[in-house]
Design goal:
alpha+beta, about 260 residues, Aminopeptidase, globular
Length: about 260
């Protein structure tokens, strides 16, 4: 197993806490309600030797169905045990939500991203009303506001709240930073539709990189759907490089969701 990849995958699991979790012989079963794939799937980073693969899958399926959810498994580079993906395919699981983890140092981002013109970008340790209005009420989390607020409450002082304001002092974009020792994860990037492609995203990345650098953090990371070409282009221009990709296997009952990576 690749130790650096395992460390990163563990960091990501820790940075997005689920409402309910249960350990299953090395796997972590997660359930939160709402549409988030990550918070409603089994993290399969480490498998113990107690349960054979068919048994652990069956027990996971029973756990999710008892909560009224489709069984779902997150499959990344360190998924175990061997043969998991093929076993899920044979049981009728479809592939959803392919995404990549990309990383950069604060210095690399600051070297690539200039100061945003006509925008004021800041990072605070407390969520202001304007941040909550954008990041919770007007983003893709609008229909899962209670879940998202629960994540913020669970993370507590690990949160960094990035906000962009335009020349009229109106909030136009927001992002969430999550501190994990010497790394800062960048989550929940959102710009108002009419303010996209005007530098707000770049401004938020620069502000978060400055904040991470000031705190002595050595690395930034983020998660992005592989088919989100606009976001991937933005992050690549800002100096982020893919480290690994991952996806989900969801039991195929004909429904299709909108994954939060």
């Amino acid at each position: 197993m690749n130790a650096p990849l395992r460390e990163f995958e563990e960091t990501v699991v820790d940075a997005w806490p689920a409402v309910e979790t249960e350990e299953l012989d090395g796997w972590l079963l997660r359930s939160s309600g709402g549409p988030s794939h990550r918070a409603n799937s089994a993290a399969t980073l480490g498998a113990g030797s107690e349960l054979p693969l068919p048994t652990r899958i069956a027990q996971s399926e029973a756990w999710y169905r008892a909560r009224g959810r489709l069984p779902m498994f997150q499959v990344g580079p360190c998924a175990s045990p061997e043969g998991l993906e093929q076993a899920l395919v044979e049981r009728g699981y479809r592939k959803e939500g392919e995404a990549a983890l990309a990383r950069a140092t604060p210095g690399e981002v600051l070297a690539q991203v200039g100061r945003a013109q006509s925008l004021e970008c800041s990072v605070t340790n407390a969520a202001k009303a304007a941040w909550l209005e954008l990041a919770v009420q007007r983003s893709r989390f609008a229909n899962a506001a209670d879940f998202f607020k629960g994540v913020l409450a669970c993370l507590g002082s690990r949160c960094r709240f990035a906000l962009a304001r335009d020349a009229r002092d109106e909030a136009c974009a927001a992002a969430l930073g999550v501190a994990s020792e010497d790394r800062l994860g960048i989550y929940a990037m959102f710009s108002l539709p009419h303010r996209r492609r005007q530098g707000a995203g770049r401004g938020l990345l620069r502000a978060l990189a400055q904040s991470a650098q000031a705190e002595g953090m050595r690395e930034l990371y983020l998660l992005v759907e592989t088919d989100n070409t606009a976001a991937r282009s933005l992050y690549q221009r800002a100096g982020f490089q893919d480290l690994y990709s991952y996806h989900y296997r969801v039991f195929d009952d004909g429904r299709r969701g909108v994954p939060f990576c």
